[in-house]
Amino acid sequence: MGRSPCCEKVGLKKGPWTPEEDQKLLTYIEEHGHGSWRALPANAGLQRCGKSCRLRWTNYLRPDIKRGKFSLQEEQTIIQLHALLGNRWSAIATHLPKRTDNEIKNYWNTHLKKRLTKMGIDPMTHKPKHHEGLGSGSGLARDTANISHMAQWESARLEAEARLGKESKLGITNANPLQHHLMISSSPNLHVSKAPPALPCLDVLKAWQGAWSLTTKSTIRDNVNSMVFSGGSMTAVDDLESPTSTLNFPHVNNAFNPPPMQNINNIVPCESGLLQDNDNVTYGYTDASAAWFAHNYRSGSIDEEDNVIVPTGLSSMIMEDFTDVLVYNSEDHQQNASLGGHISENGVGGNGSCGGDGFEENRSYWNSLLDLVDTSPSGSPVF
DNA sequence: AATGTTGCCAACCGCGTGCGA
DNA sequence: GTCGCACGCGGTTGGCAACAT
């Protein structure tokens, strides 16, 4: 059944909203709630259609909207979810509670898509472009099929969860994934053994993280409590390759080539997605360990002789499940309260001498990635 | 300084879905 | 089961600002 355009009526205004219109809408909704959107414009004295009012409210005027630059965590979450859900912006938006689907969609189209393309990754398939024409009889094809299968499974689960989230917001259910996660993560003796499935978006994440950071966490957390950088160099022991991965990173196994010590505190991700220090020297994947080194150095987990101290506690934390990590990533305060404790639970790092929200964010980011990446597919219901 | 180009984002459009009559 | 209303969603566009020539 067709539908006539909602703004067909003559005299209804279109285009940008004026501050006066915003104020009218805001005041009306604050006093009466939106009720029926169709009836709202007349009641509020606006020459707009109900749909236009709804959009203005949900995308701009709503008080719980966070505006401005997307954080690294948010970017990562969007990429992860896009890999699983595709262009289902509203579903993605449920995991970034303060962002609107429209904003996420715009950000994807104007920033993230381009950056992934630049990195040689197809933003639609989330696969490296040079892998696209491979034959179907290969082991790779089997992996791809598994990935697809897992993606479907994960996608369905996320959808259900998004629904649950919505219901939760409406007070329909008490289920709250974040609370659930926090409950678990705040109990030091409770180590949940349920392993989440390997993530089909892992390759993209690795490329993303490789573009501006570290490589060695998985092996470190599993096998050692301390590692030694001898004379400022280290052989990276990257072992992050997932069983289902379609992407190889041979370059990250190269010897660590550190930036000058005086620049350590100034390594930041640069425009290209790689790392850059304050001398504008760029460090690529090969040098990705530099960031890890820098972060640990700054946070006090590398000692005078360049020995890296890895907290034992790292190996004991297992996230309850993937979505908790995502929700977690989207909640800045919770994140600081919980993951900050996570990395410093062995007395390493702590508040960090580096200070600053950026570092704290990065620490949390890598902790969550660490947990995401270091999961075995054996616990997955898919296999 | 003037003009053209590009990037960004708010807003619009039209289809799909849920739900009550 | 069908119809029609209301709303939600994803794709697209118009217009402004920033940047390049």
Model description:
The protein is mainly α. The chain has two domains: 20-61, Arc Repressor Mutant, subunit A (Orthogonal Bundle); 72-130 and 137-383, no CATH class. Helix content is 46%, strand content 4%. The protein has 14 helices and seven strands. It has helices at residues 19-32, 40-44, 50-61, 72-85, 89-93, 101-118, 139-169, 177-185, 202-212, 217-223, 289-299, 322-330, 332-343, 357-373; strands at residues 121-122, 127-128, 226-228, 268-269, 275-276, 282-283, 307-309. The strands form three sheets. A three-stranded antiparallel β-sheet has the order 4-5-6, with no helix packed on it. α4 (72-85) runs antiparallel to α9, α8 crosses α12 (322-330) and α13 (332-343) packs across α14. It is elongated, with a radius of gyration of 23 Å. 37% of the residues are buried. Mean pLDDT is 52; it is low at 1-8, 132-149, 166-202, 211-265, 269-275 and 283-383. The protein binds a DNA duplex (21 and 21 nucleotides) through α3 and α6.
